[in-house]
Amino acid sequence: MKKLTAYIFILFSSISFSQIERIEPPNWWIGFNNNQLELLVKGENINTFTISTNYPGVTINNINKADSPNYLFVNLTIDKKTKPGLMKLNFIDETGNRFIHKYQLSKKRSNVNNSEGFNNSDVVYLITPDRFSNGDESNDSFNSLKEKIIDRKNTYARHGGDLRGIINSLDYIKNMGYTSLWLNPVLINDMEIYSYHGYATTDYYKVDPRFGTNQEYIELANKATSKGIKLIKDIIVNHCGLYHWWMEDLPYKDWINYQEIYKSAKSMEEFEKTMIYSNHRRTAHQDIYASESDLEGMTDGWFVSVMPDLNQRNPFMATYLIQNSIWWIETLNLSGIRQDTYPYPDKNFMSNWAKSIMDEYPRFNIVGEEWTYNPLLVAYWQDGADNKDGYKSNLKSTMDFPMQKAIFEGISEKENWNSGLIKIYEGLSNDFHYSDPKSLMVFMDNHDMSRIYTQFKQNITQTKMALGLVLTMPRIPQILYGTEILMHDTSKPGDHGLIRSDFPGGWKSDEINAFDQSGLSNDQIEMQNFLRKVLNFRKNNQIIINGDTKHFAPKDGVYLLSRKYNKETILIIINKNSSSYTLDLSRFAELNLNGKNLKNIVSEEIIEWQDSMTLNNEGILILTTTNEN
Questions:
Q1: pTM for the structure as a whole
Q2: 320 vs 255: CA distance, rounded Å
Q3: What distance in Å separates the CA atoms of residue 399 and residue 379, rounded to the nearest whole number?
Q4: Do the Cβ atoms of 167 and 541 come closer than 8 Å?
Q5: CA 329/CA 230 separation, integer angstroms
Q6: How far apart are CA 390 and CA 370, in angstroms?
Q7: For 427, left (φ over 0), alpha (ψ -120 to 50), or beta?
Q8: Helix (H, G, I), strand (E, B) or coil at 550
């Protein structure tokens, strides 16, 4: 009898393997505040089956048949007292065909064991994984994937960087002084071209094999955590890749926006001509005069023809995306999410998405990308905003594009009544409108923008001025990989492939190695050393994390920003004068620094604060009161 039982189980298991193509999420946890779980079950004619389970503590509430006969969406309740184990899901159809699928339920981490979310104590290092370091050459290319070519001379081809390369570089990242790591997406992008950037996902639960495996992603997360580095995952809920596995058999008639146009097109050429693309009018979300057609054109239009726009108003799609984010948070013990193209999905869904995550992980953080230079629009998306339409985003952090622009113009423009440093002064004064300005993420460039060194026309002094300010103002700073060695895109400004160039030393054949400074120019070494000093000074510095901020209107090409915590002070002085300038310090008497010694954190020179200070050159001074005072 035991042998017969074993035979039947093996038979059922093999039928399960052939009958079910996938169940997503592939596993789940016990102990969430929301005890509901929705399983997407994909298999040929799976909607002819019913599902049951006798697993203690688990109840199947609904089995929803999709428009396609090859999907079921199964809603379950998991009691918090349920014990971890393999839950047997029993499938049976009308003719008596049956099989069993085993589904893993584990215990969720306690909030105490969850990683703390990234915050203004951190500096975020942004990496494009394909372009940072190739730690495993064996995974460079796969014949089973659509894009097979590795060509480092082609800036839009894959170059071979991977998770193993990043794991191998964690000590470099730590020693530089970075405390958080944001990777451009690493999930599989099985696209024909340009798959290296990662923003056209074709499977939401699988790492691209050219980057590594899910297990290596977990290894990266664990090893980063052990070195005091937080991990931020780049997530896209607005769109997927055209070759996502579900595009050949969409579950519902409204799974993606303008699905009827996609389905009816007889060729790619016809499809590209007839598809409705986003009008990118992001202000339609806040505009009290906005037409319905403008708002629909913004949220429903496709970004590009190879990125289908997901319809988050479909409740099964909405739950799928929320659960996927939570699955990765729990799997990797993430510290944060960077959400791409934040205003493009349905905004009510985005509010629910963020709330669902924060309800489960109250120490977590999410930063949303709203690429606008209007601080009113950035503030609208931050949690705590007093929006007239009553919208509550539940989004803790937003990307501070307005400040990026203000710093660039403030340093690069000629000084005048309404140009130059006044842009920084007035930009920071907009903080009164933000619900939590210190939680905004400030930066000078990213993977989509011309590099800072190119923006400043390869002026190392101005580059230092901007970065020094970014790292000391009340914000969460983000630095793009390679900034520390003056990587640039000057030969073709704004070209994405060039912006995301390879980090030298990440490949065995590289003659220049930025990890150990071999082959770097004097300017590159100077910048790397400058950033290392400022970053490590900033690490765990309570003046920067919790200090009060005070600044003084720029005068004669000089701007002073002060940070103070208890009795300690940090001063940031931006000087745009090319010749020697005497700064009258009586204007800053309210800082109560007279007679105190201040240390230049870069040169380590000691300066006594008296009546005046001579600024010999254009540049930045970062001064801190010493323990001797």
A1: 0.95
A2: 11
A3: 10
A4: no
A5: 12
A6: 19
A7: alpha
A8: strand
- DSSP code of residue 85: E
- Are 277 and 302 a contacting pair, CB within 8 Å? yes
Q: How far apart are CA 339 and CA 222, in angstroms?
A: 22
Residue that is written with structure tokens 């705590």 in the block: 384
Q: How confident is the model at residue 10 (pLDDT cuts 50, 70, 90)?
A: very low
Across the strands, what pairs with 338?
234, 367
Q: With contact defined as beta carbons under 8 Å apart, do 231 and 220 qualify? A: yes
The count of other CB atoms within 10 Å of the CB of residue 583 is 18
Helix and strand counts by DSSP (H, E) for the chain: 17, 24
pLDDT digits (tens, 9 = 90+) for 301-337: 999 999 999 999 999 999 999 999 999 999 999 999 9
SS3 207: strand
Q: How far apart are CA 78 and CA 87, in angstroms?
A: 11
Q: Which two tokens stand for residue 626?
A: 């010493």
Task: Say if CB 236 and CB 186 are below 8 A apart.
Answer: no
Span 235-279, pLDDT tens digits = 999 999 999 999 999 999 999 999 999 999 999 999 999 999 999
Residues 411-439 pLDDT 10s = 999 999 999 999 999 999 999 999 999 99
Q: What is the enclosing helix (H) or strand (E) of 164?
A: helix 163-168
Nearest CA among 167, 172, 168, 210 for reference residue 189: 210
Total Cβ atoms within 10 A of residue 390: 6
Nearest of 483, 489, 465 to residue 524 by alpha carbon? 483
| pLDDT tens, residue by residue, 194-231 | 999 999 999 999 999 999 999 999 999 999 999 999 99
Computed from CA positions of residues 157, 162, 165, 167, in that sequence, does the dihedral angle turn out positive or negative?
positive
In terms of C-beta density within 10 A (0-12 exposed, 13-18 middle, 19 or more buried), how is residue 80 classed? Answer: exposed
Round to whole Å and give the CA distance between 67 and 316: 12
The C-alpha atoms of residue 468 and residue 623 are separated, in whole angstroms, by 11
Residue with tokens 């056209």: 200
Q: Could you identify the residue written with the tokens 């704004």?
A: 494
Helix, strand or coil, per DSSP, at residue 314? coil
Alpha-carbon span 482 to 441, nearest angstrom? 19
CA distances from 542 to 307, 506, 510, 539, 564 (A): 44, 34, 40, 9, 9
pLDDT given for residue 129 in this prediction: 98
List residues with catalytic annotation: 340, 369
Bridge partner residues of 158 (DSSP): 150
Gap between the Cα atoms of 115 and 329, Å rounded: 10
